[in-house]
Structures are given as structure tokens and as C-alpha cells.
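User: Please fill in residues for this 164-position structure.
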């Protein structure tokens, strides 16, 4: 296995932890980004050292190195991955709180993105496709707001012209 395989394993481990333990906020994304950077550097360094000393020719050493690296990546992710309830994932596993189907669905839902921009209503959790758009006077309010802004702009222009 070369460094690209190990980086792929790193990405799979990060996504797996994010899916299995979805109780994270923005700090979880920052943590995953920093872990990707840190472990990519470690993988590059280990690959360089293995190539320098000729260990990269040995399949057994490469498999052992990949296994140890994957164990270390999973350990650091499970130990330090921030959760909103302030309990690390490794402690959740230690106390018997294993991921369920509901948490996996929640984790997968957090990693998806809604590409339907036309019929989007952010106040509802249901599917946005083929829904009526609730205007309820939104067009009229937008016109009134635009008219007020135009009046303010005209007043500002006329005020600036009076000073000269």
C-alpha cells in the first residue's frame, strides 16, 4: 500500500466517525479538517521514512504500518471528536451507547445537501419537491421595501446635492 491508499483510509475513517456519531456542530467540521491535515502530513512523513530505509519493498511491513496507522487514526478520532453533549465517542462506546439506525440516518442526513433551490422552505423538515411556495404577501412587502429604499436613496442624493 502506498500513501494514496492510506489517505483514502483516512478519509473513510473520518466520514465513518461523522456518520456514526452525528452529534457535532461546526467545531466537528473544523476538527475533521485539522485531523485530515495532520494525518496527511503524518502519512507523508511515514511514507518518506519507509522509502528512505527501504521498508516500502516489504509487503508485511506496509500492511503492518497501514494497520497501525488506521488504529491510531480511529483512536484519535474517537477520543477527541467533539460532541454537543460533551461525551467523547470512545466514552459512549465504553458505556454501551452504540450507534443505532436512527443515529446512522441522522449522520447520513447531516452529510447530504439539498440541491433543490426552487422550492425550499427552511422552516420545514419534509422533502421540498413539488410544494406550493407560500407567498402570503411576500411580493407586496418586497415591492414596498424596494420603494422605501429608493426613496431613501433619492433623499440621500438630494441631501448631498444641497450641500454643494
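Assistant: Residues filled in for all 164 positions:
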Amino acid at each position: 500500500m502506498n500513501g494514496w491508499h492510506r489517505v483514502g483510509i483516512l478519509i473513510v475513517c473520518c466520514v465513518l466517525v461523522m456518520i456514526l456519531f452525528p452529534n457535532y456542530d461546526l467545531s466537528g467540521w473544523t476538527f475533521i479538517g485539522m485531523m485530515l491535515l495532520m494525518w496527511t502530513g503524518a502519512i507523508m512523513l511515514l511514507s518518506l521514512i519507509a522509502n528512505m530505509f527501504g521498508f516500502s519493498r516489504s509487503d508485511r511491513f506496509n500492511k503492518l504500518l497501514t494497520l497501525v496507522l488506521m488504529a491510531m487514526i480511529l483512536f484519535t478520532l474517537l477520543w477527541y471528536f467533539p460532541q454537543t453533549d460533551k461525551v467523547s465517542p470512545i466514552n459512549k462506546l465504553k458505556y454501551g451507547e452504540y450507534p443505532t439506525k436512527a443515529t446512522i440516518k441522522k449522520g447520513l442526513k447531516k452529510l447530504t445537501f439539498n440541491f433543490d433551490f426552487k422550492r425550499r422552505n427552511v422552516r420545514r423538515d419534509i422533502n421540498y419537491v413539488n410544494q406550493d411556495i407560500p407567498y402570503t404577501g411576500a411580493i407586496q412587502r418586497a415591492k414596498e421595501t424596494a420603494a422605501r429604499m429608493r426613496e431613501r436613496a433619492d433623499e440621500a442624493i438630494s441631501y448631498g446635492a444641497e450641500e454643494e
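For context: Residues 34 and 40 are 10 Å apart (CA to CA).
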